[in-house]
Specification:
Order of helices and strands: EHEHEHEHEHHHEHHEE
Strand order of the largest sheet: 2-1-3-4-5
Oligomer: single chain
Number of helices: 9
Number of strands: 8
Strand content: 15-25%
Distance between the termini: 22 Å
Helix content: 40-55%
Radius of gyration: 20 Å
């Protein structure tokens, strides 16, 4: 999948530069452009066709909420000092994928960007039609836990889940086994269960030859 192209919109030139720097540090993202007003943002979206817009609410010529209503074919992550509930609600109604209150750290923005990238990957993996469990995961609907297969224990499953979650990256069955003290075969069974339960995803890693290595990543 190609990099996510981001348009940064903020009336403050220095803040826009800082936010663009934050975006550029996140793997898989690149800055497509910067705008400092609502009309400029609409024109930039039409010209640059970004995947995602980091949109401020307080703009000199028009409200960011008005910009949000006019945007089509692009996702919007609101970044604003506006914290009143009506504004947040209106942003949600307008289709914003997330809302980040200023001031925020580079890590906070990076987390939202990674969440956004994960959702894009899930859409790609689903295919032309979605099942209900696919839609539930996209909308964050709590999933009913899949029953543990015979021979698996809840305590050991929690141990494997914790190891995968704390790794902060994908793991192979062998790496999970090393972290938990289990055999590779046992670790793989628990990892496969976590995938079936929607708490992890399988990510094949293709090498130069032979079968792809199975890697597992925590979804929660």
């Amino acid at each position: 999948m190609s990099d996510v192209r981001v348009l940064v919109v903020d009336d403050d030139f220095m803040v826009a530069r800082i936010h663009a720097g934050y975006v550029a540090r996140v793997p898989g993202f690149r800055v497509a452009g910067v705008a400092h007003g609502g009309a400029e943002a609409l024109a930039a979206v039409a010209e640059l066709r970004p995947d995602l817009v980091l949109l401020d609410i307080y703009l000199p010529d028009m409200s960011g909420l008005a910009v949000l209503k006019e945007l089509t074919g692009v996702d919007v992550l609101v970044v604003s000092a506006a914290r009143d509930v009506p504004t947040v609600r209106e942003a949600m109604r307008g289709g914003a994928v997330n809302y980040l209150i200023k001031p925020f750290t580079a890590a906070a923005l990076a987390e939202r960007l990674r969440q956004y990238a994960d959702t894009r990957r899930r859409f790609t993996a689903i295919g032309p039609e979605a099942r209900q469990d696919d839609v539930d995961r996209l909308f964050g609907t709590p999933q009913a836990a899949a029953p543990l297969p015979k021979g698996l224990s809840a305590a050991t499953c929690a141990l494997v889940a914790e190891a995968l979650r704390e790794a902060g990256r994908d793991l192979s069955a062998a790496e999970a086994a090393e972290r938990t003290g289990l055999s590779r075969v046992s670790a793989r069974r628990y990892l496969e269960y976590l995938c079936a339960a929607g708490q992890a995803e399988l990510r094949p890693r293709y090498g130069t030859a032979g079968r792809p290595e199975h890697r597992y990543r925590w979804l929660g």
